[in-house]
C-alpha cells in the first residue's frame, strides 16, 4: 500500500524544489512595494471571496516553536524542511513531543540560500504567555539538556476569561507587551498565501506606521500555515491565536484586536483556534466571544452568516467493513467536518485541515462521475502519504466541499468510501 504512493511522491517532489517564479505577485507587496503601488485605502471594495466556515479548533499542540530564518520568504522553497536539515530535525523530534515547529522571517538577514552551518534564533511560546528565546539554536541544541528541561514546562491552568495573555519580554529585542502578527506569505508553497498574505503584510505595515505602533506591534512572515482555502492566515503572538479568511481590508481591525482582544471584537469572526489549548478548551474560549454581533462589511459573508443560511444534503458513506451510512451534511462544510459531526470511522483530521497529515483520507469513486474539483498539487503531495492510496479515487476529506451537486451524486448512487485507517 505504501509503495503504491511512492511514485506520486517522486512525481511531485521535484516540482516543489524548483518553483517556477512563484513570487511575481508576492514581490508586489512585501518589503519594498513599487512606487506605482496604489496607497491602500480602507474604503476599497474587497475581492469577492467565498468565506469558508472555520473549525474554531486547532489540533492540540503544547506550544509553538519558531525558528527565525535569515532568508526573506522570496527565497524559500516550497518545502523548507528539505532545504533546512535543522528545521526538519527539530520538527520531527519536537512534533512527537506535541510541539508545533515553524519558520519565520523576522526582517533580519538577507541570505539567498541556506547555509550549511545553520544557526538560527529560536523562540518557544506557551499558551499562558510564557516564552523563551534561544539566540543560537543549532543542531546540537535540538537534544540539549536545556531544551529538554524547557520542553517539560507545564503552562499555568487555562482560564477562558483571559482573552489576552501578557508577555514579560526577553530583556533583549522583545519588549514587554510586544505583540506580533505572523502572516503566511509562503508563495512557493501556495500562491494564494503570497497573494493574500503578501497584501495583508503590506497593509498591516502601513497601518502600524500610520498609527506609530512600530515599538509595540511587529509584523513578520511565517512559512506555510493554515491551508490554501483559508488564506490569508496569520498567527497572533503571544496569544497563539490562528486567524483565517483575512484580506488586506482587515489590517486596521486586526491591529486593534491584537492590542485589545475584547470579547466583542469583530475579528473573532476570523478566529480559527488557539495553539496550546485542547479542543474542549478552545470550545470554552469560543463560547466567551459573541461573533453573531460582529459582522463587518469586509466579512459580510462570514462563517457565522453562512451557518445560519446553511442548507443540507444527504451524503452516503461506506465504511471499510462495508456498512452503509447516510448522513445529513451542511452545504459549504467539508467531508472531514461531516465525518467528525457524524462520528464516521477513519476520519481523524489530525492537522485540523491544514494539508499536513492525510488522516482525512477517503475515496470518491469515479463512477458515476463525481462533481468534485480536481485535487490541488498540495493535496496530491499530501495524498502520497495516505495509507491505502487508490489512483483516481483517493482524496483528502478536508479539501472536498459539500455541495448540492455532491448530494445529487449520492442520490444517483454515488458512495464515498472510508479507508481502513
Ligand atoms: S486533516 Fe490533515 S490533511 Fe486533511
Q: Can you put this structure into words, describing what you see?
A:
- It is a single chain.
- With 421 residues, this protein is of the alpha+beta class.
- It has two domains: 20-293, Glutaredoxin, CATH 3.40.30; 310-417, Beta-grasp domain (Ubiquitin-like (UB roll)).
- 27% of the residues lie in helices and 17% in strands.
- The protein is built from 13 helices and 14 strands.
- The strands form three sheets. A nine-stranded mixed sheet has the order 4-3-1-2-6-5-7-8-9. The chain has a three-stranded mixed sheet with strand order 11-10-14.
- Helix 1 (2-17) packs antiparallel against helix 12 and helix 7 crosses helix 8 (251-259).
- The chain starts with a helix and ends with a strand.
- The relative contact order is 0.13.
- The site of FE2/S2 (inorganic) cluster has 15 residues, from loops.
- Pfam families: Suc_Fer-like.
Task: Describe what is shown at a glance.
With 421 residues, this protein is an alpha+beta fold. Helices cover 27% and strands 17% of the residues.
Q: Which secondary structure elements does this structure contain, and how are they paired or packed?
A:
Elements: H1 2-17, H2 24-27, E1 63-68, H3 80-83, H4 85-95, E2 99-105, E3 120-125, E4 131-137, H5 139-142, H6 145-151, E5 179-184, H7 191-210, E6 217-222, E7 234-237, E8 241-243, H8 251-259, E9 271-274, H9 279-288, H10 303-309, E10 312-318, E11 324-330, H11 335-341, E12 361-363, H12 377-383, E13 394-396, H13 404-411, E14 416-417
Parallel strand pairs: 1-2, 5-6, 10-14
Antiparallel strand pairs: 1-3, 2-6, 3-4, 5-7, 7-8, 8-9, 10-11, 12-13
Helix pairs in contact: 1-12, 7-8
Biased composition (Polar residues): 22-34
Cofactor: [2Fe-2S] cluster
GO biological process, one term: P450-containing electron transport chain
